[in-house]
Automatic annotation (TrEMBL):
<keyword id="KW-0560">Oxidoreductase</keyword>
<keyword id="KW-0125">Carotenoid biosynthesis</keyword>
<dbReference type="GO" id="GO:0016117">
    <property type="term" value="P:carotenoid biosynthetic process"/>
</dbReference>
<keyword id="KW-0812">Transmembrane</keyword>
<dbReference type="GO" id="GO:0016166">
    <property type="term" value="F:phytoene dehydrogenase activity"/>
</dbReference>
<keyword id="KW-1133">Transmembrane helix</keyword>
<dbReference type="InterPro" id="IPR014105">
    <property type="entry name" value="Carotenoid/retinoid_OxRdtase"/>
</dbReference>
<comment type="pathway">
    <text>Carotenoid biosynthesis.</text>
</comment>
<dbReference type="InterPro" id="IPR002937">
    <property type="entry name" value="Amino_oxidase"/>
</dbReference>
<dbReference type="InterPro" id="IPR008150">
    <property type="entry name" value="Phytoene_DH_bac_CS"/>
</dbReference>
<dbReference type="Pfam" id="PF01593">
    <property type="entry name" value="Amino_oxidase"/>
</dbReference>
<keyword id="KW-0472">Membrane</keyword>
<dbReference type="InterPro" id="IPR036188">
    <property type="entry name" value="FAD/NAD-bd_sf"/>
</dbReference>
<feature type="domain" description="Amine oxidase">
    <location>
        <begin position="16"/>
        <end position="485"/>
    </location>
</feature>
<feature type="transmembrane region" description="Helical">
    <location>
        <begin position="518"/>
        <end position="538"/>
    </location>
</feature>
<protein>
    <recommendedName>
        <fullName>Phytoene desaturase</fullName>
    </recommendedName>
</protein>
<comment type="similarity">
    <text>Belongs to the carotenoid/retinoid oxidoreductase family.</text>
</comment>
Amino acid sequence: MDEKKHVVIIGAGVGGTATAARLSRQGFRVTVIEKNAFSGGRCSTLRHDGFRFDQGPTLYLMPKVFEAAFADLDERIEDHVDLLRCENNYRLHFPDGDTIELSSDLCRMQQVMDRIEGQGGMGRFLRFLQEAEVHHVRGTPIAIEQNFESIWDLVRYLPDIGRLHLFEKVYRRASTYFKTKKMRMAFTFQTMYMGMSPYDAPAVYSLLQYTECVEGIWYPRGGFHQVVQRLEQIAQEKFGATFVYNAPVAKINTQGRRVTGVTLAGGEVIQADAVVCNADLVYAYHRLLPPCAWTTRTLAAKQLTCSSISFYWSMSQTIPALDVHNIFLAEAYQASFDEIFQQHALPSQPSFYVHVPSRIDPSAAPPHKDAVIVLVPIGHMNQDPVNYDQLVRQARSLVLDVLHRRLGLLLADWIEHEIVNDPRTWQAKFNLWKGSILGLSHHLLQVLWFRPSTKDASGRYDNLYFVGASTHPGTGVPIVLAGSKLTSDQVCRGFGQVPLPRKNASHPPSLTPPFRPLWILLALVVLGFLCSFSPLLLPMPVKIRMSV
């Protein structure tokens, strides 16, 4: 381009940072504005006296997506990040005291299945994985490599709906393969990666179990934040992007159908030819943009994911009984999810996650000590007054009691220092609407074409774009990374520029030409059925205009 267009990106999370690197590589002048003093957003680090904690994500899944993101920048991720593979994917702790380890080793999984599921258990497990592979191979490219800008983008993939089991739930589908409650729990809790209940999440999300079993779970040496740091380094040093910290954005400036830049909390105005918002989408529409009916009716009616009470414990000694990733499952499995998602409460018997980064990366803690992270899911904030200090005490007590009863651990005696993030923290620190840690939910009517689009979903502004958990394609670090490609490509096209091609991209199957009259009719029938649940679920008219 003759004169570099200026793109302002709000937020230096993984989505904003990756988009900055991509757009600056395309020749744009990019300025990233971050409210905090650190990068990464939820994908950031907490430190205390030699201990290091990943503040948010800890599971490095779908490694090919990370590889592709760096490849698109003409880099190799292995030249920037040292990835450590977990020997066990998880250690699962059941209410009766039984423990199993899930891994990518089929011989070890055979032993687990024989013991828990009995005769034919391994065969049922392999059939479950075979179906999960279909979900992964066919569903992932459709979901994360396609930008559903018009209804026809949805129509072309309607033939796959049946094979992807979008109308079934994760737990029910798993129950058709596994006879025991233990294995049903073991292969359904993963929906919590998306902040959803396995009793509500579409069955297609068994693709998560597939990528775990086949590709494994990894950990970046030095912490998950290493990924964001390296992307920022590439964006700045290789492509000339600018990052500004301690600069909260007060509003996105608008004029007619265009945004003109941002105003910072201190009053400074930064002009822009386009704005990409990596701040929480729901927060941005409510707080940074002028109000409109789409925000107050359609967006406000959408379901959010859960929040969490997260403990970051500096331990005075190592805890050999804990692996890198540990899941403690509740006896009242379904009831615990109902309490989170229906009552927006702390479960009376929570299932929770314990992560020990120092087990795989000794640099996370001083010698002979462990860093321990505990994540207890809880409902997001609502209108009712809540005593979160009391809930934090209750959650801590529940966790320590379970660890004592199941493992005989007296962790309370070994905690040297504690940091806590609760829904208030997530909201205040990262502007997460109602403290929802993973943004908008991924139920059927909030994905693909139904999810807020990467270009202003309200239809008011021609040069306002979004990237992050609550926009398409969705939540989770690899998904947001993939979304940064969709968003940056759309920005390029908005300025008449041809986006750079993907590196090593997969090509999703298209079984049916998108414009056959029969499929158009079928699409309208299906969409009419889905949207009949509530008129508020209909996207704005702007989303059905043909892209040019």
